[in-house]
């Protein structure tokens, strides 16, 4: 595995909400297992992160040959420690081949691709499967949620300590691939239309999880491990980064009211796609 990358992921930050992040893995896998008949299937976990999703796959298919792939050395180091019996490789899903795969499984990595490569990458990988092979992905579908809209709004505020860090990018403009905000997820129909010409079945559903968190500060901690990272990477000054986080948290308080026990509900919609190669 390569040396540490600048602005690499934090496995520790990501795993602060391990149970909540792993729940959709189980939901996705439940629709995969009926299609896997081999005792020793070849499975690739694309964007495996710190190995939490890979462990779920290993528990379900203990005799499988499983490879976890991720672009983050920090995540892979954590995965190697957590699940030492699995093969780990560093790679990029946009160029990954997945030769001989029975299952291509992905918990959220397609969320990070831009729209010009997301569905085309999925289609390429699916077409490379043999008959009966399964591709299964889950992507956060939260572009319009307050948690993510307020990232864009806060970064776009003028004349504040962090404002200059975003002066060279057009936040919210899909034409600007250098911007820190992620692209919206395509419609279910777009995924269906791309896969059905090569599929015997395409199963698509959307779940809006409602996570009860301690307070809005916990929402900040959640997204610091994922969608907020590209924003924070642009703010190199520690004081400016702190000010940005405080303003973002202040804005969240107006959108996530306290419940009777003082907690808040973080709505987190996710889109699931499972397709079987014909």
UniProtKB/TrEMBL annotation:
This protein's UniProt keywords: Methyltransferase, Transferase
CDD domains: AdoMet_MTases
Name of this chain's protein: S-adenosyl-L-methionine-dependent methyltransferase
Top-rank lineage group of the source organism: Eukaryota
Methyltransferase domain boundaries: 43-133
Lineage start: Eukaryota, Fungi, Dikarya, Ascomycota, Pezizomycotina
GO biological process: methylation
InterPro entries documented for this protein: Methyltransf_25, SAM-dependent_MTases_sf, Trans_acon_MeTrfase_C
Pfam families: Methyltransf_25
A GO molecular-function descriptor: trans-aconitate 2-methyltransferase activity
Presence of keyword Kinase: no
Keyword Methyltransferase attributed: yes
